[in-house]
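Exercise: predict the structure of this protein bound to PBG.
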Amino acid sequence: MVRETRLDVADLVYPLFIRPGEGISREVGSMPGVSQHSVDRAAQLCGDVVREGIPAVLLFGLPDSKDSIGSSSWEKDGVVQRALRAIREQAPGLILIVDLCFCEYTDHGHCGVLSEQAGHRTVDNDATLQNLARQAVSLAHAGADIIAPSDMMDGRVGRIRSALDDAGFSHIPILSYAAKFASAFYGPFREAADSAPAFGDRRDYQMDPANGREALREVTLDVDEGADMLMVKPALPYLDVIREARRRFDQPMAAYQVSGEYAMLRAAAANGWIDYEQALMESLISIRRAGADLIITYGARDAARLLREGGHD
Ligand code: PBG
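Solution:
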């Protein structure tokens, strides 16, 4: 009765990796319980996700082919575009959020178009913006409900907003990965999404883990550019940032319990060192307590089951 914070199945978002082929579900080695699914399998699974009461999925694509600019991300029949149509048919009512980025689609694994500036090879921020706009409009055409840019280019929210508006998608909201840190906890994701950078790292465009105030400045920019919902990522190592962002902004606040956070729980549990279910629920309630409204987690289906079984709400 006196519990201050609650977790509800309606707070959860389940991430899905869509791969080419048919009838394929391939488990990700470092993420037990998580698989890459072909479009048909993903659509089937989304039927279960809806029945479990989870309101939304977040889609990532592993394309057939990669190039230097990630052009397969805005093809009409790209892997995520096809998944959107198939899921819509099999799981109407499920909210379809799409991750907008290039690291899964470029042959170099960086989150945009490369350029060389003063001998330093890195992502060309402004050249990447127009491709992000292309990808956003293509995914909206294919039926995405919410566009979630995770690239961390400056100015992307404003640019994506006007591209969506011009294409007749002014009703489609933007969930911005507003404070995304350059984190070691993305390790297993890069196996799951085949998106490890071929050289260097992402510190040119992702946030320094030491800088909470700078991260909030990044959130402010996204709010000013028209972000409808905000995200802090990863979750558990950045609860202070979630708390402060919640205090300063009124937009719905999402937190992403990322691949490494999930993998740690699973790995410790596999060794008998930790109780996975209890640790999962404790971490999720902590993220809610810090101020997140929505939690994106690979444990969403486990959490939904535990909430159903009772004793965990
Ligand atoms: C794409 C992207 C990443 C994640 C979500 N979107 C990887 C990265 O930035 O390297 C990580 C999610 C996770 O670790 O679960 N840019």
